[in-house]
Design goal:
Blueprint: H1 3-13, H2 17-20, E1 32-36, H3 45-52, E2 57-60, H4 75-88, E3 93-96, H5 108-127, E4 132-135, H6 145-159, E5 171-175, H7 188-198, E6 204-209, H8 210-216, H9 223-236, E7 242-246, E8 249-250, E9 261-262, H10 271-278, E10 287-290, H11 299-309, H12 313-322
Parallel strand pairs: 1-2, 1-10, 2-3, 3-4, 4-5, 5-6, 6-7, 7-10
Antiparallel strand pairs: 8-9
């Protein structure tokens, strides 16, 4: 192996918190703040990574996000994940569904694979005692939007058959999207519509992504725009139903419909909208999870610390005392 290749491999490896973390672990903040975390070396190692980053919640892929072949999840791994989460007080665990899954697909073979893959996602989420499974609603190309929404609900019901989700702690969360052509979930109304379809099928809620919201066209940057956007979200989805916020800055401008995430405070959204969100008592029940890039070692740590630094601790303590 050449010296250049060795150096490059070393730099890639050093992005892993298990390699660069030293000394005292950062304290968690007054909110449930975390980040999408690597499962390299075993899914259970993600809990250790989250702890070393100072997170008290985290998100993972339970299998490869870009391959149909499922990850083999052993009982010992599930037990170790639960042990570490209990030890470190990390909750909720959020699992993000594979990007390949499209439960609204008009192609029979692809749709069948999606339903089978999503059932595997549900089974792994239950085995890991995850609280939330986040799903992108999919693309309705080849159908009407209404037909796509109906098919997603039927597909989830088919995938969940016999799993008794109603007796578990797992909720399926529908995530809003960046609004690309034919995508479902590009508006709060579409997310709310799908939740109504799914309520008779399984326990559901919503995941709202700040980057997606911004590039889809909602104004979350100005104070007046933020208040109006939150009002629209409450009137459609219901703020109480938003159980996870994906906290991502955006590389592209509002309304661009381009889903490219940026480090917290370094994109077109900026710090203030995240400050408003993290200090809004209507969102206190939710988990706040970054899905930011890792360009350099400690980027995950910096993004978590950026979010934690925005929480007004005095304001939070005062509200707890009043309660």
């Amino acid at each position: 192996m050449s010296a250049e290749l060795t150096e490059r491999k070393h730099k890639l490896n050093m992005k892993d918190v298990l390699l660069w973390s030293q000394g005292e672990v950062p304290a968690p903040g007054p909110r449930r703040i975390g980040i999408h975390t690597s499962t390299a070396g075993g899914v259970e190692r993600a809990a250790e990574r989250a702890y070393r980053l100072g997170a008290n919640t985290f998100q993972i892929f339970s299998s490869s996000p870009r391959q149909w072949k499922p990850y083999g999840l052993g009982k010992s791994q599930c037990l170790e994940m639960r042990r570490l989460r209990d030890k470190y007080g990390i909750a909720p665990l959020v699992i993000h569904t594979s990007y390949l899954v499209n439960l609204a697909s008009a192609t029979a073979e692809f749709h069948c694979k999606s339903v089978e893959s999503f059932r595997g996602e549900l089974q792994r989420a239950l085995a890991l005692c995850a609280e939330y499974l986040v799903l992108h609603p999919g693309s309705f190309r080849g159908r009407s939007r209404e037909e796509g929404l109906e098919l997603v609900a039927r597909s989830i019901a088919e995938a969940a058959q016999g799993l008794e989700l109603e007796n578990s702690n797992l909720r399926i969360l529908i995530e809003n999207t960046a609004g690309a052509e034919f995508s479902l979930g590009g508006s709060f109304e579409q997310v709310a519509h799908l939740l109504e379809y799914l309520k008779p099928v399984c326990p559901v809620g919503a995941c709202i992504d700040t980057c997606h919201t911004h590039v889809c066209g909602y104004d979350i940057v100005s104070e007046a725009g933020w208040q109006d956007t939150m009002r629209q979200l409450d009137q459609t989805v219901g703020l109480g139903n938003v159980l996870v916020w994906h906290c991502n800055d955006a590389k592209d401008q509002r309304g661009s419909r381009r889903d490219r995430h940026e480090h917290i405070g370094q994109g077109t959204i900026g710090l203030e909208p995240f400050r408003r969100l993290l200090n809004d008592e209507r969102a206190e029940h939710a988990a706040f999870i970054a899905e930011t890039p890792i360009d350099h070692a400690r980027d995950d740590l910096r993004n978590i610390e950026a979010l934690k630094s925005l929480v007004n601790v005095k304001q939070t303590s005062a509200r707890k005392k009043r309660a």
